[in-house]
Amino acid sequence: MKKQLLIFLIALSTNLNAQTKTTGNVVEYFGKEKIVTTAEGSVLHQFSEGYFLPADKKSGTLFNGQDPIAWQYAVGKFANPNKQKTDWQPIKVDSVGVFSGKNLRSAFLFTEYNSPKEEIVLLETTGGTRTYINGMPHEGDHYDFGYTLIPFKLRKGTNEFIYTKGRFGRVKSKIITLSKNIQFTKRDMTLPDVINGEKDEKWASVRVINATEKDLKNLVITAKLSSGETASYATDAIMPLFVRKVKFKIPAAKNDFSGELKVELTLTDKSGKVLDKTEFPIQQRSATVHHERTFLSKVDNSVQYYSIAPALGTGPKALVLSVHGASVEARNQSRAYKQKDWVTIVAATNRRPFGFNWEDWGRIDALEVLEEAKKVFQTIPDQTYLTGHSMGGHGTWFLGTTYPGKFAAIAPCASYPDISTYGFDKGDEMHDMFKAYEPIKRSANSGRVKSIVQNLKQAGVYILHGDADSTVPISQVREMRQILGTFHPNFCYYEYPGGEHWYGDHSVDWFPIFEFFKRQTIPANKNVKEIDFHTATPAVSATDYWVKLQQQILPFDFSNITAKIDKEVITIKTKNVSIMELDLASLEINKEITITIDDQTLKTPSDKKAILALKDGKWSVINEINTAQKYAERQGGFKFAFNTNVVFVYATGGSAQEREWYQNRARFDAETFYYRGNGSIDIITDKEFSLEKYKDRNVIIYGNASNNSAWKLLLKNSPIQIDNQQVKIDTKTLKGDDLAAYFVVPRTDSKIAMVGVVAGTSEKGMKATWANNYISGITGFPDVMIFKANLLLNGLPDMKVTGFFDNDWSAKTLEFYN
To answer: What is the pTM of this model?
Structure first.
């Protein structure tokens, strides 16, 4: 066994070439057998030599769309460093087969493989933010998770691979010949625990490799427990050359048991033919101990999990939502807490251990888990609390300030308030000189915690931080202590003597925090007499107890509503508010109410909601929200198109190159959303799309009016029109073959759904849409960004249009640049 393991390790670091002959799971190399296999097949080639190209180390936090390699591919200037003298420098792997070094943290790595034939294979890579395969972008593995698998077709002859900016300065890559073209991979499953006594089937997910050039549809996954129970589920479709994480169901167990079960998983097609089988362990537990549960996310109908430290004893209990730090799994977060007799502690995932910094889709995950846990555990509504550590400390500040009224108290531990000003990269000061940056910066305002901290006035705050923390400087929370001291009547602050960033489980499971929580409850609306609500957008944060912001004057600029009740008189002052709503019935005043708003007086009944609208400087009471305009449930911001039941629709018209690019562009976004957010996106062709079949779903269009047939169904009335020659914005026209666009508009056949567009004019513009930095926490994307391909090289000087549509979704407020 030891000899085999040694041979295996040697083989992994060996450069297998065209003299390699593959037979099953054994590779014959120079006449000697060496075991070089993976779970998915046999290693055809492991890269050991290449070139690296140092890159500019500057990269913004809110805007980081530059990439010189993407630019070279877009404009046709990429030169293979093996065939032409360039600035690339040679590099070889180290003794364990890894390209490594500090230089790789801000560099590009090039490798190539000369294939004797065309065939579909799998690229397995660790390290690198993204990977180009023959000029096509794919997701990388910058967190070294070890489960990035990319099916692709090898060309006969030279194949080029470029890996971008490895987070940890190391890259390892190999080509795998698959044992089956359709198969399970057990890397990165999402599994629940089987819970004693619970009769419902549980959601789970597993990745299926489709290494064919056809869609896989009508697949069925059957799970069989070692105790005999089975459950079958008709699972998700998988696009060509893609690895999708698909749903299945785990059956309930008939008998109580504590320990490990085996699950046999079978994949069959519509005829019942078995395509693959696998086996894995799962835990069966009592609901009274730490355990994991799953649910379906409303973002993409994917399976997500959360972890629980359940309260001891029976009866209604309080609820604490705990949000984890960077690289921490939710299951480990919950197990840092001892079980308590009065409160259930629930740890959300942020969609991944790194995820989205608890902003964007991490924020949505926290809210989904909060609601799911309330439903499952029937907790006491007004005893809901929030805490977290490190990145989760930031999440605590962010979620607590963003959602006043959801939490009776918050407790950030080892925290920083605002990620854009934390760490060595202090944000995007280098971009401030460009006017085009202002809408980008503004679109990320919802993460500016210090600008909305007044929202915490009704909630208790406990701050815990080690005074020797070298990861998050103590200055971060001392500043927050000073800010809270100017207005907050109910906060505690403690510096743990000698405490580093983590000093044991009591870094989060801190007895005084839970004693502080016990004394706090969420007040009923009728008991909240004063509100000072701050928000950057109602798309993220619309409500503060009985006040709701429906529409802003200036999108994504900070809004403020102060409101005070004195008997039956409500006095309101507003800033950047055009429509707001008051839940008057919940105040239980039972008399006609007088509203004084910005020194204007209105009268309204007290038994229903009052909708107040500002027009031409005058406030009035209106009957209903016009959902064709921007309102709380449907605002701008390009990233928000990915938030709700989203489906990707790619072009099948145009040239072969257009068809290949846009198909891969949709695939690339899905790969990235999977990797960063444990996602599972439906991806279809434009020919498959129909308004009725995908009713009320958010749609991302890949392609333009010339090549995507879904354009005329969804975007015929859009103020922005794009074809292969030009971009038209109302009466203005931008001409050129190198224009790219991201923008979002409402679905006119829906009151809630949105359409996001990723499109370009001709080849250069199409390839200029390379960057998918919108699938990233905290980056800024306004309603519209239109730019030339040279932006990939030069940055914001080549931005042509940015900004936000007006509240009626017209383009008159967009900013144009020379």
So the answer is: 0.94
